[in-house]
């Protein structure tokens, strides 16, 4: 890092945060300290930047990351109702993770598949033209898979 | 293909967005221009066997014209395509976006060659100025003029930036172009750099668009290999290179001064202008920022000439407008029409009219910064000035159609909740104004509105519009102002009668089972996430008002032969 100006270092902050989140799924406290040290900036400066951008999270995500699109086209076609039903089912609010660590729920402003609204994103995969029924089936099938995996794990022990 | 001996006869290629998203996935067979829509994996065999080997097209996969029920085989004959004029999107859905050679075959990089080898930067700027091209990011500032300012700034270092931070919810034009025709954007950016004299550029792109990021990354690598990027491009002595910056989820970063702050690794907050970026931008150096669509238009202007380009569209808004048409319209997708085309043509001819033949209520352009226009504005020509006059903006390409199931108060509230959440908080009018407007809209939506609230809303809206620091705040009140202007009766229904005419606002409606219609199938009971429904099999079911979260799942699953779930005003009937 020697020879780089303060501006050069600052430019690296967001890409570094992105890489950390890409690998760990969130930005741990230690990462902020580490970055501050590396870039000769204060922790406040790093956290100030990180907390400004909505893509960065500071708690670990759940095993399954469910994002419900609330873009305009999705809102018109019931995105908020899908969110309400899911929030009720999982017992958490958007931005939270279930106590068992299985699901984290988030709202997303737009995933750009507006013509196929309403959309949800589960573990990075976009599901379009979502209905209450199809969303329930999707989550049911995830639950079944997880249960099956848990059972076979217990069986092998 | 190879297994069936078609290896040399048929070439399979992937294409970017063909535009008609509603009918996806699509397969086209060229050169005939045959169009298969909503194709499933299991249909592929039949297409290969029957069409490619047997010479008999698979008619059941042709597009069905809803009005006549007739099947149309060629996409050029489908009204959705017939009503469009593809200029900027001419390569989208035609070429393999991952192949630079295909782009070059279609005349790609010819514009760049012409600019670099035959023209001086000033001449390029003159051409762009003469073409009348205005910024497609929304504000409509003449592109040539921006470039001239960039050129005129004296500095040892200059930058160009492609703004691909398409954060408007309901808009996917820039993302689609970057996926389907990335080289057009890149070519435009290189020409921009040459014109203003920049040697370094950035593509600032949304993190939420992984495909677009991949696409432009690949395009940059291929372009470098061909010598369109790097040192001494095409032997012209001009050097330039590009890198990618991914956004991190802040809508305000679409605003140019915030975008630059974000590139420099800071919080993406705007700053007052002047100084304009073309005088003092990234790291204090002159910086020229253009939207994806603007840059994608540059190559075709250079290739086909200024006269040709400016003959399309209107006198003050030349060229074409590209929209992502979504919402309650039959044909959703990517649409390109000449500037000056009427809203009616876009929605009813290209868009095929309203879903389920419902009644048109409003159309929104410009996303959360735009406004909603009612039915009597349908014959308005779509150009920068007409839209501004009517209380909305051209914006960056989102066009969302609404029918009678949309509540305009809810819509205004939806946009306000978005802009309020995305307000960076730097200036007070935006930070507090959007919050106050949101509170008032929530008050009205919950049935507690007072007559004076509409005036209060208007007053705050105007204050925010005039006082906010950047485009986000200045435009945030547009949805509120336009819905009050055109749909005041809906606000009044919420306030006076405590009724939401579109049956959307949760506090003003409730779900109920119509006893005479209920067949006791249990579908609603099973899907209800809050266990609000009770009833034995084959007996009439009942919804508890206390437990109901009004998600509407029951209404969705109630069998069509029963249709026993009804939405009624909250104050009607006795609660169960």
Describe the structure.
The complex is a heterodimer of chains A (157) and B (576). Chain A has two domains: 6-52; 64-156, Glutaredoxin (3-Layer(aba) Sandwich). Helix content of chain A is 52%, strand content 11%. Chain A has helices spanning 6-11, 13-24, 29-39, 43-52, 72-76, 79-90, 132-156, and strands at 64-69, 103-108, 120-122, 125-127. A four-stranded mixed β-sheet of chain A has the order 2-1-3-4, covered by helices on one side. The model of chain A has no long low-confidence stretch (mean pLDDT 91). Chain B has helices spanning 44-53, 79-82, 100-105, 110-118, 121-131, 143-152, 173-180, 182-196, 210-225, 256-263, 292-304, 306-310, 343-350, 384-389, 408-422, 428-445, 452-467, 471-475, 478-497, 523-527, 553-557, and strands at 27-29, 34-36, 63-64, 71-72, 159-164, 200-205, 241-246, 287-291, 320-327, 333-338, 360-365, 371-374, 398-403, 509-513, 533-534, 542-543, 565-569. In chain B, the strands form six sheets. In chain B, strands 10-9-13-11-12 form a five-stranded mixed β-sheet. A four-stranded parallel β-sheet of chain B has the order 7-6-5-8, with helices on both faces. In chain B, strands 1-2 form a two-stranded antiparallel sheet. At the A-B interface, helix 1, helix 2, helix 4, helix 5 and helix 6 of A face strand 9, strand 13, helix 15 and helix 21 of B.
